[in-house]
């Protein structure tokens, strides 16, 4: 659209012309609903809520697999990053690599299964990600968005899953991530978002929660024990200050007082750690 403005005086006339972009008010949205079926039976699913009431152009795609583990393996690498630099990225990458290692090691004859997948993928040329393979998931404006680079990254991750040295590669990445976490933890036990930034109770609570979940799987390594113990000591002080602040507000008559997400993560992590029989955090 072209917008023209003009001003006319007795002896002077001036004007401007501008091009204004008109964008469509229609947005394409992809909604997903997952389901699981363990045995032969009739399964009824309602898909009405997937489509808004005023939708005119509807499309439904059904995807299923007999190997849900493969879907997990495809998903976890998106959480892992070799170039993670901040505490949230590093702990998420460490968590994902741990889950993948435990998943692979818990499946009997996993090497045989991966070899079958390699052979089938090479035979059918299906080494691409789900986004790259499924045309039904592609929108008309896909190549105008960052999703193209996301699809290319997923392609590379899918190929990495089929590497013969996958487990050794994951172990190496996990160890690298843990070293990064040790570097990001300050002497007071806290973590910051990025190196050299101030200590953050929020960031520390997120790291503590994820590491506490994995603690039982780590066979209580001394390094992890020390990292968790220092983080707990820092969080205990932060939560104590929060509780004192809540009590002061209550004495002033404030009724709507809520515990922060940070405090809830700390309590959840401490509950997980105290459930481990060999862990005694309050010995001293």
Contiguous runs where pLDDT drops below 50 for at least 5 residues: 139-148, 277-284
Radius of gyration: 27 Å
Main β-sheet: number of strands, strand sense, barrel status? 2 strands, antiparallel
Number of helices: 9
> How many strand elements?
2
Inertia-based shape: extended
As laid out across the biggest beta sheet, the strand order is: 1-2
Distance, first to last CA: 74 Å
- How much strand content do the residues show? under 5%
| SSE pattern | EEHHHHHHHHH
The oligomeric state of the chains shown is single chain
Overall mean pLDDT score?
78
Please characterize this protein's 3D structure.
- The protein is mainly alpha-helical and 284 residues long.
- The protein is built from 9 helices and 2 strands, in the order E-E-H-H-H-H-H-H-H-H-H.
- It has helices at 68-75, 87-106, 110-124, 130-133, 147-161, 166-184, 201-215, 222-251, 261-274, and strands at residues 2-8, 13-19.
- The protein has a two-stranded antiparallel sheet with strand order 1-2.
- A hairpin with a 4-residue loop joins strand 1 (2-8) and strand 2.
- Helix 7 (201-215) crosses helix 8 (222-251).
- The longest helix has 30 residues, at 222-251.
- The protein is extended, with a radius of gyration of 27 Å.
- The N and C termini lie far apart (74 Å).
- Residues 139-148 and 277-284 have low confidence and may be disordered.
